[in-house]
Amino acid sequence: MAAWGDSVAFCSSIGSLLVGLTGVLPILFLEKNNKYTESIWIKYVLAFGAGTLLGDAFLHLLPEVMNFREWPFGVLAGYLFGFVFQKFSPEEDSAKSGAYVNLFANCLDNFTHGLAIGGSFVIGINRGWATTATILVHEIPHEFGDFAILLRGGLTRSRAALLQSITAFAGLSGALFVIFLKDISPDLVLRCIVPFTIGAFIYVSLTNVLPELMEDEKNYHWIVLIISIGIVTMGLLSSL
Predict the structure, then answer these.
(1) Coil, strand or helix: which one is 185?
(2) pLDDT tens for each residue of the chain, 240 residues long
């Protein structure tokens, strides 16, 4: 009998949880400051987050689904979901609604990561750990931007960290899903879930976060530069 640590289910669970729990890393680096969300620093982190969302959507996720004819409908559905969610929220809670749309999209994103990790461990243990390491490198910068978006929505550091950690279980469910339901076509995920996630990421970055950042005329050039750095970072990581 194989050792418990070598089992596909165990390794997939550990790998997906490691990826999901990167969402709590930012709390270790962000100072305890009630005025943090009003500082120029949070604007720079938000700009980087918007860039990573755009880079993730267009340079990482979109190429994976372009072979399917249905992907534009999924992208539009994800974008409209964010738009409708915000419109049914109080006007003063625009930032908070954007934060929760991004959180939901992250759950879907972690679910797809879990699928990739679980599928890789099914092929081989070494292949699974290699995939886990690649996704970890890709996710860490992304999570700092996501954390900033939650803070912008009015959440406390501890609340944001808690919600980020909960998304880890979406990754775990994705890993276990692909292990125990191997006969279900993975095309379902690529046709539906990934395009929806792309649309939600585009909404949060372009419609919810960027307009507010662009109002800062004093730091406009720095914000554009940091957004570009975020996009390039995700583009480089996606090529690994």
Answers:
(1) coil
(2) 344 445 888 888 898 888 888 888 887 776 555 445 556 777 888 888 889 889 888 988 898 889 888 899 999 998 998 888 777 665 556 677 878 888 888 888 888 888 878 877 876 788 788 778 877 877 777 788 788 888 888 888 888 888 888 888 888 888 888 777 665 666 766 787 788 888 988 988 888 788 878 888 888 899 999 999 999 988 887 776
Q: Within 10 A of 159 (CB to CB), how many other CB atoms are there? A: 13
| Residue 14, both tokens | 């550990």
Closest Cα to residue 106, out of 58, 50, 53?
53
Answer yes or no: is 10 within a domain.
no
d(C-alpha 101, C-alpha 205), whole Å: 11
Contacts (Cβ under 8 Å, ≥6 apart) of 184: 177
For the question of whether the overall pTM of this predicted structure is more than 0.90, the answer is: no
Inside any domain, residue 93: yes
Residue span of the structural domain in which 180 resides: 35-238
Q: Residues with Cβ < 8 Å from 9, sequence gap 6 or more? A: 176, 179
In a domain, 191, yes or no: yes
Separation in Å, CA 84 to CA 78, 176, 208, 222 = 10, 32, 12, 31
